[in-house]
UniProtKB/TrEMBL annotation:
GO terms for molecular function: DNA binding; DNA-binding transcription factor activity. Residues 68-252 form the IclR-ED domain. This is Glycerol operon regulatory protein. Keywords: DNA-binding, Glycerol metabolism, Transcription, Transcription regulation. PANTHER family: HELIX-TURN-HELIX TRANSCRIPTIONAL REGULATOR, ICLR FAMILY, HTH-TYPE TRANSCRIPTIONAL REPRESSOR ALLR. One of its GO terms (biological process) is glycerol metabolic process. It holds the Pfam family HTH_IclR. SUPFAM superfamilies: GAF domain-like (SSF55781), Winged helix' DNA-binding domain (SSF46785). Residues 5-67 form the HTH iclR-type domain. Signal peptide: none annotated. CDD domains: HTH_ARSR. May be an activator protein for the gylABX operon.
Amino acid sequence: MPGPIQSIERAAAILRLLARGSGRMGVGEIASALGLAKPTAHGILRTLQGVGFVDQDAVSGRYQLSPALQDLGSGRLDANELRSRAINRADALAARSGESVRIAAPVDGGVVVIHHVFRPDNTEQELAVGEELPPHATALGKVLLAYDGELAEAAREGGLPALTHRTITDPVALRRAISDVRRTGWAGDIGEYRSGEASLAAPIRSRGGLVVGAIGITGPIDRLCDGQLRFRPAPIAQVRDAAAAVSRDLGGTQ
């Protein structure tokens, strides 16, 4: 078995040291306290700052723990922050695809639409912000189920109600669908939530690759799918590109 990773041990020691102190600490103080070379301590601190675990005072250059550590257990990104960071990408996806765009995130154990861009054709449409989606029957929901064990367990416990004749109601079939999401990097639904409507979605990742939301498009089945009810390659690529762009903006990978 491989041994412990020294850089992670050192990062943990720095976090413990800052948690123990009563104020900010400089790089030299931290290096001296832990017996590290100053460049090594500085590199670890910059990395911890990059992932949001420590803050650096702009005037003194000294470091302290970030308030973000208090929310570490939730593993969530604030929905307002996600929305603000993704607005421009969502607008671009709507213009490129010609379809409506939704961004969803896990909120209070459910899948909730946090941003909605109308289809750019001037037709009458209803704002979906705040709508809670059935995770087993929507592309956005399937993406989040694939990367959130707590959400997936809640969905199984709540049952898989049929919303149309195409809705997945078999837990085994849903597990296969979720596995396909992890393998391909995108999810789809064809008439599973609303008859005649299809949707595509891909995961949004923050630092370290953590999935914090999903972005997708919704439109008529005949526009997103071919005659054999297979999703067309172009909208898949458009959604995945948009998700990758938002992920890069958040410091994640895609």
